[in-house]
Design brief:
Blueprint: E1 4-11, H1 23-26, E2 32-36, H2 44-56, E3 60-64, H3 82-102, E4 107-110, H4 114-120, H5 124-137, E5 142-146, H6 150-157, E6 161-167, H7 191-204, E7 206-208, E8 214-216, E9 221-223, H8 231-244, E10 248-249, H9 252-255
Parallel strand pairs: 1-2, 1-9, 1-10, 2-3, 3-4, 4-5, 5-6, 6-9
Antiparallel strand pairs: 7-8
């Protein structure tokens, strides 16, 4: 039975005059912030503001790098040469690490975003490139990767500490991977649906697919996405349900 777990959210995804998400509210709920690094969302001012807010809330800091895809919010697949991709990842992670350091904080982990994350979960070569980039910059960084993914395995093979995550608002296919957003039912929209989904997986000790299949696996963190209209309500309900169940909520480094 799990007695400690982490809640994480993808934050800092505004850009210039364009506002995204409810960062201030979510930072009162989660224990870990994955902060956009400017390639799918975020900009230097947003990054700095989000780091300051996260540190004030006592939340652990992570970089949330992506493909260079502002227009598509990082959700469009791209094919990049390995050297270019690794350089882009080091650039993004290093930028956020520098901002964190300037504010008296420290970057603790990396969680790839969107299409980069999804592709690396299934493509061994891409997963290896992501893990290699993280290791070359700072081998002490934790890789936050989806449970049962090739990305998690690549992180372990590279000698990184790996934290496995599940998603509170995303349905799982029979392989244990996320149902693509293009399919009906891929995203859960209400707080009640998200709480029930999380409880099923916690009680079962693994991922429960849309067909009811149980794939047993451990996990350290639950992602509550911050960019939907029900994000704060769902995150609040999940936090409350976990606490009522006697589960302690901790920053990411403390659950490993």
């Amino acid at each position: 039975m799990i007695d400690t777990i982490n809640l994480n959210a993808d934050l800092g995804e505004s850009f210039g005059a364009w506002e995204m998400g409810s960062d201030a509210e979510l930072l009162r709920i989660v224990g870990t912030a994955n902060i956009a690094c400017g390639f799918h969302a975020g900009d230097p001012l947003v990054m700095r503001r989000t780091v300051r807010q996260a540190l004030a809330a006592g939340v652990s800091l992570g970089a949330h790098p992506s493909f260079p895809d502002l227009q598509g919010f990082g959700r469009r697949a791209m094919q990049l040469p390995a050297a270019e991709l690794e350089a882009m990842l080091i650039y993004q992670i290093g930028a956020l690490a520098g901002i964190a350091r300037s504010e008296g904080g420290r970057l603790t982990h990396v969680k790839p975003h969107g299409a980069l994350n999804n592709l690396a979960c299934e493509d061994v070569a891409l997963a290896t490139q992501v893990a290699s980039a993280i290791r070359s910059l700072d081998p002490s960084l934790i890789l936050l990767a989806p449970a049962l993914s090739k990305l998690a395995l690549a992180g372990e093979a590279a000698g990184l500490r790996v934290a496995a995550e599940i998603f509170a608002d995303r349905a799982y296919g029979e392989s244990g991977h996320l149902v693509p957003r293009s399919q009906v039912g891929a995203v859960l929209h209400t707080a009640d649906e998200c709480v029930a989904h999380v409880r099923r997986m916690l009680d079962a000790g693994g991922i429960v697919t849309v067909g009811g299949r149980l794939i047993r696996t451990g996990f350290h963190s639950i992602c509550v996405h911050g960019d939907g209209p029900q994000a704060v309500a769902a995150a609040s309900a999940i936090r409350a349900a976990l606490l009522v169940s006697g589960i302690r909520l901790l920053p990411l480094p403390e659950v490993l």
